[in-house]
Write a structure and sequence with these properties.
2 domains; five-stranded antiparallel β-sheet; Beta-Lactamase; alpha+beta; single chain; elongated; 23% strand
Length: 211
Amino acid sequence: MEFAKPEWLEQMEVILETLNEGVLISDDCDHVLFVNSVFEEMTGISRADILGRDAGELYYSPEDYAVLQELRKKTREMGRGRYEFYLPTRVGGRLPIVASVRSIEDPDGRMFAIVALIDISEQKAAEQHLRAANTQLEEPQKEIEEDLVLAARVQQSLAPKSMVWGGIRNVLSPSAHDWRRFRLGQSARRRPPQCLGLRRIGSWHYLGASC
C-alpha cells in the first residue's frame, strides 16, 4: 500500500532501528508508517504486512479493539499516555506489553503518534508463578491453623471442672491433701464449741469430754 512518509521520519529510521524497544509510528488516520525490527520480533508480523494499514485491524478480539480505540482517544486528549495492554501476534496470541505513546505535530500541522512497546511477558509469567507459589503455601498454613484450633478445643474439653465441696472449691480430681483438708473441716464443724476451746488448752481429755 502506498503512503506518504514524512521527511523527519526518514531521517530518524536509522536511530529507531537501534532501540531495544518495539517502535510503531502512525499518522492521524491511524495508518502505520513505520515499525522497527524489534516490533517484528515481538509480534512475528513483518513490516510489509502492516505498513499503510490500521494497526487495529490486527486485533482478533472485538474487546481488545474496543480497548485500543479508547486508549487512542485518551492519547489524543492528553497528548501522551502509558498503558498496559496486549499486542496481537502473527499466530493469534496476545503479548503483554507496556505502551508509551506520545502525539507530535510536524511543521505542516500533521499529527503523528509515536509508540514505544516493552515486552512484559516474562514479568507476567513470574507474577503468575509467585501467585501459584503463594497459593500452595496458604493451603498448608490454613490446615495448620485449623489443627491448632481443634487441639485447643480438645484441650479445653479435657480440662478438670471445678466444684464446691462443703464450702471449699476443688477440682473434680482432688489430691489426698485436698481430701484431708476437707475431712478436717467437716470434723471441726461437728465438734461443739466448748470442745474446741478445751482442745486449745490441752485439757479436755482429762475432763472426760467426748468430742
